[in-house]
Amino acid sequence: MSAKKSPFLFNCYDLPRRAGEMREFELNIDAPDDFGLPLFKIDPATPIEVDLTISAVSEGVLATAEVRATAHGECTRCLEPIEQDIDQSFTELFYYQSSRPSRSKAAAPEELGEDDNLVMDGDEIDLELPVRDALILNLPLNPLCRPDCQGLCPDCGVKWDELPGDHGESGHDKTDIRWAGLEKLQEQMNPGAEPGL
Length: 197
Ligand SMILES: [Zn+2]
Ligand SMILES: [Zn+2]
Hints:
Elements: E1 9-11, E2 22-29, E3 36-37, E4 40-42, E5 48-56, E6 60-74, E7 81-95, E8 118-119, E9 124-126, H1 128-136, H2 177-189
Bound molecules: zinc ion (2 copies).
One zinc ion binds near residues 155, 156, 158, 167 and 172.
């Protein structure tokens, strides 16, 4: 356990444990580094905005929230920087420790999701999982600057958008760019030798 508290922990001490009680909060949560997908992340410099409503119900605290953030990445075809605004919501029930659903003999063991119940830690609820799900499950694995991005010319690495229409039709110089330097060197060392041998 790290000494630093998770920015996603929220203390509900303000909310009386009486069904029907409700409180609203506007939170700005600093995204940890690396919050997102490998190619598309929530910028740590821009806080995640969470409009949180907590309601007391008999078994715990029901959290409903609107979550807004901006994801940054680069187009997987042309490497152009891109960003996407995300606006999602979630509803999640956090059980009081005292009313945590137990794996009793009565409960069907094969019942799905039983282990996924979120339980409060004292008065605290941990919003990381629902926030992460709301933001990240909706991000594209391979972000594109636009759906029909043409990417880069594989030979010269220039964006197709910035190249003339006939580019590539006549083909690039037959010499692969990676070998051009070697060929020159070979020429210097063996003047008069047949190139390419
Ligand atoms: Zn692109
Ligand atoms: Zn090219």
